[in-house]
Amino acid sequence: MKKRIVCLTLALMMTATQVVSVSASREDELREEQAATSAQLDATYAQIDQLYSAKQQLQDEINSLDANLVNVMVSIQTLEGDISNKEADIQQTQADLQKAQNAKDKQYAAMKQRIQYLYEKGGNEAWFQMMMSADNLSDLLTKAEYTQKMYDYDRQSLEKYANTITQVTNLGNQYQQEKAELEGMKQEYEAQSVDLQNQIDTKKANSADCDNEIAYAQEMANEYANLIQEQQAEIEQLEAERIAAEEEARRQAEAEAAAAAAAAEEEAAQQEQEDQTVYDEDGNEVDASEAAENGDTVYDEDGNEVDPSQTTTETTTEDSGSSDVEYDEYGNVIDSDNTVDPDTVDTSSSSSSSSSSSSSGSGSSIVDYATQFVGNPYVWGGTSLTGGADCSGFTQSVYAQFGYSLPRTSYEQQNWGTEVSYADAQPGDLICYGGHVAIYMGNGQIVHASNSRDGIKISNNAAYRTILSVRRPS
């Protein structure tokens, strides 16, 4: 009888399950949609992270280019000062040259007057007449000595002024050449500044594009987040409705089961009277309850011995059972054997190390090696000793042959090594100018990648422009 009651209850519960199945199906669809939306949100956030990384990289590059542009502008200002100084030197040289020329002209005019006077007084015989007009030998010797001194003075003066003019002219030519070289470097720096500014403008434009993409991606992320909230709210509403429906179905099922149980009990009470009919060993009908209380042996209508205490009780163990299966709140089976214990996750890490070695060479060896490449071209941004290098690329590549690791730019090389004074400079030291760098050869000479016109060359005047620092390899 109890088995029938259980079956009836299960049937009622199955009916209640069918009532809420539609709600559960919509809830599952929403969960799938929410999972897809969450995946889109995660992808959008990943895209935003990538855009921020790209923007940061662009900003770093812009900062580096800005620093290079500032250095180039400082170099241009330094060169303008050097050019101004050269112009002052050239003007002073021209003034000295003019003075020497004027002195020469005066001396030459005075000499011409003396010669003219002598010829006017006697022509080719003037010297002879001057000698013959002497009063005595002493006067003759005095006049002869005077004449010789005048001749020597005129010759020495002319030679002195000629040498002065030659020296001043050579110095003026040297200043003009150095000024032209400085102006060429200034033009190259100005071209570099334009190129750097163009790069900065391009990267700023790319950074602005990143900002626009980030703003759009953030807008999409907000929409996805709002959609997830809406889906979650609908899921919670459906879940609450489903739970309420299940509770109502369960309540109705329990009420109907209670009613069915009451009816079944009534039927069982009637059946019990039949089931309680038992007989003693003489075949007389006895009361099963009394027989059970007295411990009498009773028999059924077929003469089989029965236990009077069991005649009114039905065992339902065959209709009942137990299960170790667990369910969640949505009716899904929980398989505890397939769960993952996070404490069993193993992690490992590794580390690596690197080492470097360097060798050094004497200053004269560095100079000898560097001078091999005199005549090779100057290429801005280049580091090839044969194919083309700029000033810092040339020094970096030369010193690398001797185990020294120099920074890439001339501005960074100004802080490399150990600083010494120019008075203590030795072959192999770096001579650092504003935006330029060279290798000191000794005796006031340098070897350097000068400019695109002269290429790699040797200059005889290391102080041809302002020296900012002298660095010695260490």
Automatic annotation (TrEMBL):
- Acidic residues: compositionally biased ranges: 264-290
Its EC number(s)? 3.4.-.-
Query: Which GO MF terms does the UniProt record name?
Result: cysteine-type peptidase activity
Q: Where does this protein have compositionally biased stretches of type Low complexity?
A: 348-364
Locate the region Disordered: 246-364
What positions belong to coiled-coil segments? 41-110
GO terms under biological process? proteolysis
Principal EC category: hydrolase
Decide whether keyword Protease is in the record. yes
Family label? Belongs to the peptidase C40 family.
Per its record, how is this protein called by name?
A: Hydrolase
Species assigned in the record:
Blautia obeum
Q: Quick one: which gene encodes this?
A: spr
